[in-house]
């Protein structure tokens, strides 16, 4: 992309963070010509950025056959929590009843390697400076004079999204009431590692290199120190070393002989959500569509799951398998998910305030979350395992993620999620339906006769009746549940995977 040369692609993604990379991989698996534009000239990401994967995101990566790459580099731990109150999900019915502590720089590196294997071009060192859409596509102007043409443009370019602003999509919500600095620092005095409470709220020091044993963090000797400190007042603009020094003094009474900071960034408890996730041929995902406090570690995970919901739908529309209205279901399904995240993030931020009233309230909430039913309810919410899309009334599985059951098939033993590695829909027929005929969709939907090893169980809900058959979308959510007949199956296939072939 040099000079005034213009490239043409079916889909252009702006932003090579976790959301953009996951979306690129999803589209590439569907055979879509996709390219990514990234303002950073290289893949470097400062080590102080947040990171961690919740159980549902690990399941999503398992659905694509790449979860082992992340598990090999991260630390398995019970990272789900509400306002820093740990929620143990070790008894949840999932192959991943835990979270994974892994810095974002490593998450991005592993996703980028996967995208490279799928031969997706990533054009680095380019910024979007403008675009114009017409009835057939979008013309995108890039820094340096380059241009790009795409059928669809997806903004995965963060909370200050240029794509969102240029598209004129409103971003209503709540302004910041608090702000924190997060930095990779060098000090002459070693700060106390761990999480602490001070006059301004919670602050913490840790090392970028650590391991988890028996649920406890053990930091390795040497290496950079990561500091997270609240500011005395909401900060504005780019944070400086003096801003960090003032925050340390206000919270800790000392700056520990702060000498330098390899990186400093700021996060706030601002909560905003795009009024619409789609405007014509322009779509939004990840932080471009929703921003909130990082408490609970939900942002990155919500963005990756946005990408998995959108990818197969956009691919089918590009291929003209499905009508364009299928893209409207992306907003309909994912907007409520992020709205709930914003709501619980605001509640968590309130519980973490340093005043005595908030401390008392947090104590009461801690007692409640120690009880079985609240623990399961909030654990399922924070881990993403309870997400249900509104696909109508019926079996409890409808609209929820399909459990990763062990299956006996004609081709031998399988897991449900191994059948989703190619990001294609699957009809699982458990033999009680008398043989389901999906011939008009056979080019799009894979039918697998199977026997499932139970139990059929959902997080925070418990056991559910074993279905006769299920139609599983590429994102792992159940689009139809059979009752022993094919009633409603043709409608579900047409709704999600296009009209029947002639």
Can you tell me the residue ranges where pLDDT is under 50 for at least 5 consecutive residues?
1-5
| Average of the residue pLDDT scores | 92
Proportion of residues in extended strands = 25-35%
CATH names the topology of the largest domain as FAD/NAD(P)-binding domain
Largest sheet: 8 strands, mixed
**CATH hierarchy, class of the largest domain:** Alpha Beta
Beta strand count: 30
Question: What is the name of the CATH superfamily of the largest domain?
Answer: FAD/NAD(P)-binding domain
- Counted up, domains total 3
Basic shape: globular
By secondary-structure content and strand pairing, the structural class works out as: alpha+beta
End-to-end span in angstroms?
41 Å
**Which CATH architecture of the largest domain?**
3-Layer(bba) Sandwich
Radius of gyration: 23 Å
Count every helix, treating DSSP H or I runs of 4 or more residues as helices: 11
């Amino acid at each position: 992309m040099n000079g005034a040369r213009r490239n043409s692609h079916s889909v252009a993604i702006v932003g090579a963070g976790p959301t953009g990379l996951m979306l690129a991989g999803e589209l590439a698996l569907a055979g879509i010509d996709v390219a990514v534009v990234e303002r950073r000239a290289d893949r470097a990401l400062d080590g102080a950025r947040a990171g961690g994967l919740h159980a549902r995101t690990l399941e999503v990566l398992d659905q694509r056959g790449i979860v082992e790459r992340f598990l090999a580099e991260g630390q398995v731990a019970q990272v789900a929590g509400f306002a820093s109150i740990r929620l143990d999900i070790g008894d949840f019915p999932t192959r991943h009843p835990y979270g994974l502590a892994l810095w974002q720089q490593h998450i991005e590196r592993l996703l980028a390697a996967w995208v490279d294997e799928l031969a997706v071009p990533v054009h680095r060192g380019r910024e979007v400076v403008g675009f114009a859409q017409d009835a057939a596509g979008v013309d995108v102007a890039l820094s340096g004079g380059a241009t790009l043409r795409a059928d669809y443009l997806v903004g995965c370019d963060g909370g200050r999204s240029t794509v969102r602003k240029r598209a004129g999509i409103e971003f209503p919500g709540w302004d910041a009431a608090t702000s924190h600095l997060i930095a990779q620092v060098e000090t002459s005095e070693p700060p106390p590692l761990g999480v602490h409470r001070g006059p301004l709220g919670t602050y913490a020091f840790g090392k970028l290199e650590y391991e988890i044993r028996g649920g406890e963090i053990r930091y390795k000797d040497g290496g950079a120190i990561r500091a997270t400190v609240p500011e005395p007042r909401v900060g504005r603009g780019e944070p400086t070393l003096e801003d960090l020094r003032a925050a340390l003094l206000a919270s800790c009474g000392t700056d520990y002989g702060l000498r330098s900071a390899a990186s400093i960034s700021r996060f706030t408890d601002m909560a905003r959500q795009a009024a619409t996730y789609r405007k014509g041929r322009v779509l939004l995902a990840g932080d471009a569509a929703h921003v909130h406090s990082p408490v609970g570690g939900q942002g990155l995970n919500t963005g990756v799951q946005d990408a998995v919901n959108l990818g197969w739908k956009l691919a089918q529309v590009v291929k003209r398998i499905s009508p364009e209205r299928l893209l409207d279901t992306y907003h309909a399904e994912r907007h409520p998910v992020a709205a709930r995240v914003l709501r619980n993030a605001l509640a968590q931020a309130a519980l973490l305030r340093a005043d005595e009233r908030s401390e008392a309230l947090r104590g009461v909430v801690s007692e409640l979350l120690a009880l079985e039913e609240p623990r399961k309810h909030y654990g399922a919410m924070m881990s993403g395992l309870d997400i249900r899309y509104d696909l109508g009334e019926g079996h409890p599985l409808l609209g929820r993620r399909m459990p990763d059951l062990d299956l006996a098939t004609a081709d031998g033993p399988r897991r449900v999620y191994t059948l989703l590695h190619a990001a294609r829909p699957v009809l699982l027929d458990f033999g009680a339906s008398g043989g389901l005929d999906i011939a008009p969709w056979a080019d799009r939907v894979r039918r697998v006769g199977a026997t499932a090893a139970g139990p059929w169980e959902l997080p925070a809900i418990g056991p559910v009746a074993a279905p006769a058959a299920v139609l599983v979308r590429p994102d792992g959510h159940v689009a139809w549940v059979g009752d022993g007949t094919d009633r409603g199956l043709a409608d579900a296939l047409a709704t999600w995977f296009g009209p029947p072939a002639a």
